[in-house]
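Thread: quick sanity check before group meeting

JM: Hey all, I'm pulling together slides for Thursday and realized we never actually wrote out the predicted structure for the chain we discussed last week. Dropping the sequence here so it's in one place. If anyone has concerns about the input, flag it before I start.
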Amino acid sequence: MAGVCVTRIKHDDPKCMSSSGKSLQIFLNDDGSYSGYCFACSKLVPDPYGDNPPPEGSFHVKTPEEIEEEINEIKLCPRVPFTYRAIDKEDWHQFGVRVLVSPSDGKTPYAIAHPYTRKGKMVGFKIKLIASKTMWNVGDVKDADLYGWELAKRIGGSTLYITEGEEDAIALRKIFRTLSKSTEYDYAVVSLPGGVKSVTKCLGRMSEEIQQRFKDVVLVFDDDEPGHAAVKEARKIMPFAKVARLPEKDANECLKNGRLKAARDACVFQAEKPVGMPIRNVDDCYEAIFEPPVVGPSYPWESLNRMTYGQRRGELVSIGGGTGCGKTLIGHELAAWDAAVHGWKVLAIMMEETNAETYQGIAGKIANIPYHMPLEEGEPARDMEKLREIITGLRGKVDVWDLESIEDPETTWAQITQVIRTKGAEYDLIMIDNATTLSEGLSASDKNDFLGKVNSDFAKFAKQFNFMAVMFSHLNAPPPGNRSHEHGGKVLESQFTGSRAAMRYSHIILGFERNKYAVEPNCSYITCIKNRKYGRTGRLKTFYSRNTGRLKEREWDDELWKDA
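JM (edit): ok, ran it. Output follows.
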C-alpha cells in the first residue's frame, strides 16, 4: 500500500487508548481507496470509511510551502538508532534514513523515512511503518532518481548494483562491506524508486547517465515472478546488464538468514552475462503461439485499417510524398486521432513548421476547423474558444520539439535519441517530420549512412520503449520521362530519401500521392507500399476539405485527378 496522508480522525475502536481523539491517520492510496493506521494502538485499518467515503475534494490539499515544511521536519528527525531487519544503524545512516517516533509518547519509533532525490535535489521521503508494510509519500517523489543514487555517485567504481527495494539496497551494500577485505573499497548499490512497477520509466529516464558513470550494471531483483518480469523489461532498456540469482528471495532475506557469502558470490562472481544462446524451442514460445492476432488501434482512414489491421506500438512506419503535397497534414491527422480517440500520448518532432502551427494543425483536426489557414473573404470568424478548449485538453497528451534546439544533423539526432532514452516509455506515438530535413547539409553518401543509422535507431527504440514510430520523408525524383511526384507520380519504395534504410527497417511504408496541378488539386491517394506483418497493400482515395481542414476518404472517381 502506498499513498499520501490526507487527514486524522477518531479511531472507532473501543480498545483504542487514544487521548487525542484523532489518532487514526488516513491515507489516500494510488488506486483511489482509503486506508488508515492508528498511532495510539499501532493497528492497521484497511477500510476506515467503510461504505461512506468522504466526498471528493473534502480534504485540504497541501501547498508546496506546507510540503516543504513537512520535508524539513523529517530532515530534523533522528537517524535510526537501532538495528532493524538485520541492518545496523550505521548502514541506515549512510543512506540518510530517518526514524519517526510516536506522537503519543514522543519516543517510540513507529516508522522509518527513506529520502529521495531528483537531479540531486531532495524532493521527499517514502515513509514505511515498522510494524507493517504500510507506506506513504511525503513530498513529490514522482520521477525520482534511483534510491541511493547520490551516494552511489559519490562512491563511484566500475559496477552499479540495482535492487527492487530500499532495504534490499542497504542490506546488499552491508553484505559487500562486511565481506570486503579492504576497508577502503566501497560498493555502489541503489534500488528502484517504486519497486518493479517503476523499472521501465526510471531506468529509461536514467540509463544514459548510468552508462556514463558505470562500466557494468548488475540487476539484483527479487526471485519471484514480478522480479523475473522486471529483469526482462530492464534488459530491453539496458541489454548489457548482468543478472544476479540470489540464494534467498531478496538481499534483505540473505542478510537476515546469514547467507552473506552466497549472496556476495551471486552478485559479484556469478552474475549472468546478457549474452546467451539465441535458440528457443516450442516450450519457450508455447503460450505466445496460441495468442490470437489482435487488431490494433485504428488509423483515421478505414480502408487503411483493412489493409494494416490498425496501428501497432513497437513498429516503424515510413511515410513519403512530394514536396508540398501534404505529408505534414497526415502527421496532424495521426496526432489528433491518436490523442483524441485513443488517448495516446504523442511527441511530434515537426521540423518544417513552428510549434504553434503544429498545435493549430492538430487542434483543427479535432475541431474540424482549419485554424492554420487564413480566413477567406466573407468567411465567418472561427470559434477561438473551441480552440482554447482543445489546446487546454492537449496538455499532457501532445508534446512538440523545440525548433530552436535544431543544429547540425548529428547533434540534433543525438538530442532526439537522448530524449527518447529518457522519456520514450512515456509516449505511445513519436513522429519525425522529416528525415530529409534532419539530414540537410550532408553529402549524398554521408546522407545515406546517416539515415541508415537514424532508421535503425528509431526502429530499435520503438521496440525497446513500446511506442509507434512514424518517419516522414521527401522523395528522390523519378526517372526521366515519368511524372513528378508533385504532378501525381506514383510513390515507390526506392524513391524514399535513404531508401535502403527505409525499406529495411520499416514495418509499413505509405506513399502520399497528389497532383498539385489537377482539376481538383485537393484529391489525393494514400498508398500502402509495404506491409511486413500482413502483406496487404493497395490505395485509398482521400480528399482535403478546405472547410474543415481534414483529410478524409472519398468515394467518387478520379476524373478530378486529371490535369487542369
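AS: nice. The two ends are 69 Å apart (CA to CA). The chain has 17 helices and 22 strands.
JM: adding both to the slides.
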